[in-house]
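Build the 3D complex.
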Amino acid sequence: MSAQSQVLGVKKPARSWLRGLLLDWERTQLVITFTLMLLVAVIGLLFPSPYVLGILILATLYAYIGITWNIVAGFAGQLLIAHVIFLGIGAYTTIVLNDNFGISPWLGIPAAGLVAGLLGLLVAAVTLRYGLKADYFALFTIALLVSLRTLFLKWQFVGGALGLWLQLGNTGWGNMIFATKGPYLIIALALLAFGVIVQYRIYLSKMGKYLLAIREDEAAAAALGVNTSLYKTLAVVTGAAMAGIGGGFYVMYVAFVEPPQVFDLGFNVEIVMASPIIGGLGSLAGPILGAFVNKPLAELIRGMLAAQTSGTTLIIYGSFLVLSIMFMPRGLAGVVHSLYLRLARRWAGDGTGGS
Amino acid sequence: MALLTVEGITKRFGGLLAVHDLSLSVEPGQIVALIGPNGAGKTTAFNVISGFYKPDAGRIVFDGRDISGLRPDEICKLGLTRTFQVVRPFRGISVLDNVMVGAYARTGDGRAARATAQEALSFLGMLPMADHLASDLPIGGRKRLEITRALATGPRLLLLDETMAGLRPAETDEVIRMVRKISERGIGILLVEHVMRVVMSLAERVVVLHHGEKLAEGTPESIVQDPRVIEAYLGEAHVTG
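Done.
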């Protein structure tokens, strides 16, 4: 059998654990992911300035939010465009629980996941009930984003148009409020590790195979026993709940939330869609690879061009997104995968030659 | 008792009567062919039996259970699986993963699903292709993948929709062998087919559809001699090849 065969799926008995690890593309992506996370931690330790840490924290959060969208849009192929609504709902849940009820974010963030998950369930139920698919599903989620923005602007209990400031208690781990940025990076990396593992487990499980089948051909999946409604719902609820958790952390970090900030399509593109698209939608390492290019690049462009006519930054950033879609349709992960296939073929040829 | 009994199913699309009062049955291990000119309602009948359309009248009894109105995935789990006329491989994933999707119909365990998938692949001689992307397969391979994937769901009845269409003669022979092997396992097969050579060599019984209604039913030999069938279908088919 050719070396290619060992790359796409079937695991052959390996000579060494390292070979076993790296002759499997899924595990290789996991190695790439954790290497990048280690790199982020090291950069954070070497350059602990608030500016650098700020970029690292948001890049890590972007990677995590990218994963939550990757499960819905990348694996299951559902065009949940306005995914940021779940982040927004999560942010509001955590801050309202903290400010109005004095509930610790350690409970408020899981609660954010729960509330966002319920909103995800509602979105799935309504779209399935009325048979909204593909572009109609996408439009429905955008309409929902606009409605939520209006609702939250008028809703005084959650601050209305003024938004909500995080009521700062004592600093420390108990309140998840810190005077320096280091601890936020630690929490962000822990959150990303959670996202990476959940995504990996889903990908390798029955649910993962079913989601890919739904993405590729829904009718064929149904004919093979896939309850497509159930699994689409599972994907949306999982992605929504995880994004809600991310929103809870986001609001603890930025300490403020207002409707035009979170219920916004531009923000949605930046925090939800850009990383998986640049990195490779549907791949395991894509959201992480993309985020660690996306966020620093956006900062760099902003830093260089902030003095120019307003909007220049967005034009450059947007052009970069368009170019990356045109020239890397499978994203950075696709480029890495091609290199990997070439290397793996050579490596497998060395070790198992003659077998 | 028959494995599958279709009792007087009717399917209407607006004013068009696509299938009218169709009845047929399939026994375990039996191969039944459903033939008829283009537009006769064969694929519609398949869509009704496999749960993609709900019948407007009549019922479908599978293994003693009324399955009319159930969803396709529920019907698949009961042991009735279909393939599609235009093959629908999951293009972006490997052949093995394609077949594993089928195998997961019977288990939640990855290892068991992989074993079932590999068994189905090896049974139908597809193992060498297991690691290729489904989109890399030639058309013959895709048709065989479609059958392998359906077999991995552990069916007792397979509905094959024009599996041989567009295949070269050598490939057709290969698929004929596959179908016969599956049938020897005691799995009932209902197939829609245009290629008469396939119908004649595989089917024990033939049901002829014309304008949505059953025109004739019988052994392949009796069907080809039936004057009504010759007029409605075979004459045309013989002329066009």
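Chain A has a mean pLDDT of 90.
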